[in-house]
Amino acid sequence: MDSFLPCLATLAAKSISKLIRLSGAGMASNLPGKIANAICPNTLPYFAKQLTRGCLAVSGTNGKSTTSGLLASILAQAGYQVIHNRQGANLIAGITAAFTEAANLNGSLKGNFGLLEVDEAALPLLTKTVDCQNILVTNLYRDQLDRYGELDKTAKLIAQGIAQKQSNAILNADDPNVCNLSCPATKIFYGLNNSSLNYDTTSPVSTVNDLSNTEISYCPHCGNEIYYGSSKTLSGNWSCLSCNYKRPDLDFYASNIKLFSEHSTFVLNDKHGSASITLPLPGLFNVYNATAAGAAASHLGVNLNTIKTGLEKYETLFGRSEKVHINDRLVVIQLIKNPAGASKSLASLTNSKCAKVVIAINDNLADGRDISWLWDANFEALANIDTSFIVSGQRAQDMAVRLKYAGIKSTQIVCIPSISLALKEALEETPVKSTLWLLPTYTALLEIQRILKQYKD
Amino acid sequence: MKLHICHLYARLLNIYGDRGNIIALTQRASWRGIEVEVRAPGLAENLDPSWADIYFVGGGQDKQQIMIAEDLQRHADNLKIAANDGAVMLAVCGGYQLFGHYYKPHQGSELKGISLMDAYTVAGDRRMIGNVTVELPDKSTLVGFENHSGKTFLGKGLSPLGKVLKGNGNNGEDAFEGAHYKNIYGTYLHGSLLPKNPHFADQLITEALTRRYGAVKLEPLDDEIESKAHDKARLLKA
Ligand SMILES: [Zn+2]
After folding, report:
1. Residue A2, class by beta-carbon neighbours within 10 Å (0-12 exposed, 13-18 middle, 19+ buried)?
2. Does the active-site annotation cover B190?
3. Residue B76 CA, ligand 1 centroid: distance in Å
4. Is the pLDDT of residue A206 over 90?
5. Rounded to a whole number, what is the distance in angstroms from the first to the last CA of chain B?
6. CB within 10 Å: which end of chain A, N or C, has fewer?
7. What is the pTM of this model?
8. 3-state secondary structure of A272
9. Which residues of B fall within a CB distance of 8 Å from A397?
């Protein structure tokens, strides 16, 4: 292919993104990628063809960013030069921008492996033009229902994305809907071995009734409820009680899982052996993210020792993920966007020591305009925490109602719709050396990242 | 006093946060010292038509919806007896559709409802998604969020729940939303509906308790937080 247009597209995209940076408009712009694609629709395949070590896409409803971050850390240890789109910029424009950013103006790429975090609906668009040898799918939770319709449709989009270039699929075996994805090439299954699962399942007594356990998944074959054994979360071994569908055998798995308030330990096992891991991230969902990243790396031929080093050395970028230090206070940030993910974050919050909590709910398109899902998440878990809760964002008032009905006293609920004012108040009220938890939806998270940067500077 | 709530197919029809309606009914009763018991019969389980004061059924994904449409036929007679006896029923979205005569999809066979209400639904060409405000006959408002492609039409004798001030409502054509017959209410409003519309939640509780215990007047509650959310939702664009 002629390199003139891709080079021009790269120049334009780089210039625009420099302008955006200088203007301080923030990092979540799709504009550079859009402009590159407008100048040359082949920008993405042009660069992707230069990836000498191939390309892997990460998709699924939750955990894409952390999983690809962990995998990037492992692959860096293994000597790959990884081109990786940043968190949330996971539509075609954002992925294109990651390539123009990593390209020289002569059209050559500074990198040999593409690690692409891809929105579920964008996956078939990506694989139409880009040959991803491997596609990792984290999970299929009910999410963003107003954008994509329903779970079955999302599953079809992902399956289409996998089939188009006959990619291998690295699949979360603990999620029946992910397992069920059809894949004409090789399937690799990862999951948790929950015969050794050792974590705290005690949650505060719900003020309502036993329906508080709303994390239910349904059999993709017969539609009935899936049984997860004794585990109350959607994790580990499962089977359908109505038909014969059950979890497939695992190719790569985590065992001996122990969860702590700020980290977790577990053993990763592949067909060659095992390695003990201390992951610097809390929560069972991060054990999944690490297992997914490990399974993908192992499939690419990386050995368990290197996987261990990559995971243990994982560092989150400032404001991008779980933990930051501000004025001698620890700020833990966890994106919430659907009931299953939010309930997991709430569970890890209740297991940790926290002085203050801010929940920021926006209802922009990127957050999902329907906030009904707040009622499916287990906010009842917060009812026994002795602190006040600041609710913020465009739908702060709705969040206040949710907390009140979760059994939290009205006097404990402080409504500050402005996110910057909410953060200011929360930081003032968090004692030195204590922890502040922030639970934002996606666009609220972007706003928080901008605001916290100012605190750091 | 004790309030009996029957949440039909709670575990299979549980998308879009409709469970918030059960939470709202439960809390608003218990804050007034009224005891609450919730039962949640699932597929192939039995239902005692004399037990419940309030029936609730929500919406689900297509596959679960089809499973339930079939199972619900077993309860059709019992639910009709309860409805005629003044039991309170709230059906949201998919549940609302099943309370009518049928749902006719683009392809495949018609999904039979239980004809509790003289209404029918046909698959539409566009999905109706967005914030909704509805004006009730007493001029109070309901706020919520709709997400449906089915278009529901009411028979001549069936009253709508209210007039659409914002959004699509039943079918995006006649500016009506929901249906109301005896103490049965059908609606497309998620949100959840009842927490942000406490006056409507209290109306359901009052009707339910009055049927069992004679005229009941509920103690007023401090609804400042709920009112703020209601007022905020009224300002949202469709
Ligand atoms: Zn099954």
Report:
1. exposed
2. yes
3. 26
4. no
5. 40
6. C
7. 0.84
8. coil
9. 225, 228-229, 231-232
Question: Stretch A339-365: mean pLDDT, rounded?
Answer: 88
Give the residue-averaged pLDDT of A324-352: 87
**Tokens encoding B105:** 């999809």
Please tell me which residue of chain B has the smallest CA distance to A407.
B27
The set of residues, in sequence order, having a beta carbon less than 8 Å from that of A181 and lying 6+ positions away, is A137, A155, A158, A159, A162, A169, A171
Name which of A28, A62, A58 is nearest A345 in CA terms: A62
- pLDDT tens track for B118-148: 999 999 999 999 999 999 999 999 999 999 9
Which span out of A44-48, A59-63, A369-373, B167-171 was modeled with the highest average pLDDT? B167-171
Of B11, B130, B190, the CB nearest to A372: B190
* A181: three-class secondary structure by DSSP: coil
Q: Which of A151, A211, A223 sits opposite B19 (nearest CB)?
A: A211
- Residue A337 burial (CB < 10 Å; 0-12/13-18/19+)? buried
Which segments of A313-381 does DSSP mark as H helices, in order?
Answer: 339-350
3-state secondary structure of B111: strand
Q: Which residues of A touch B20 (CB under 8 A)?
A: 372, 374-375, 402, 405
Catalytic residue chosen out of the listed positions B4, B75, B93, B148: B93
CA dist B141 and B163 (Å) reads 9
Residue B218, token pair as written in the block: 């509920």
Chain A positions in Cβ-Cβ contact with residue B40 (cut-off 8 Å): 211
Instruction: Classify each residue of A382-397 as buried b or exposed e, where b means 16 or more C-beta atoms within 10 Å of its C-beta.
Output: bbebeeebbbbbbbbb
Give the integer Cα–Cα distance in Å for A120 and A142: 12
- A-chain residue closest to B147, CA distance: A146
* Partner A, chain B 120-139, Cβ-Cβ below 8 Å: 127, 129-131
Ligand 1 mean position to A80 CA, how many Å? Answer: 42
Active site residue B101: no
CA atoms B67, B68, B69, B71: torsion sign: positive
Q: Cα separation of A226 and A54, whole Å? A: 36
Number of residues assigned to chain A:
457
State the DSSP string of B146-214: EEEEEEEEE-TTPBPSEEEEES-TTTSSSSEE-EEETTEEEE--BS-HHHH-HHHHHHHHHHHHHHHHS
Q: Amino acid letter at B115?
A: S
- B217 min Cα distance to partner chain A (Å): 22
Choice among A21-25, A272-276, B212-216 with the minimum mean pLDDT: A21-25
Overall domain count for chain B: 1
Question: In b/e form, how buried is each residue of B199-219, taking b as 16+ CB within 10 angstroms?
Answer: bbbbbbbebbbbbeeeeeeee
- pLDDT tens for A87-104 read 678 889 999 999 999 999
- How far is B130 from B166, CA to CA, in rounded Å? 9
Residue with tokens 């990619």: A167
**Residue that is written with structure tokens 């994305």 in the block:** A161
Q: Which residue of B has its CA nearest to A221?
A: B63
**Which residues on chain A are in Cβ contact (under 8 Å) with B27?**
207-208, 405, 407
Complex-level ipTM = 0.97
Domain that holds residue B64: 2-235
Cα torsion B70, B75, B76, B82: sign: negative
Helix A4-23 × helix A31-39 angle, to 10°: 160
DSSP labels, A71-121: HHHHHHHTT--EEEPPTT--SHHHHHHHHHHTB-TTS-BS-SEEEEE--GG
The CATH number of whichever domain residue B118 belongs to comes to 3.40.50.880
pLDDT band at A365 (very low <50, low <70, confident <90, very high): confident
Predicted local confidence at residue A25, as pLDDT: 56
Record: contact A370-B145, CB cut-off 8 A: yes
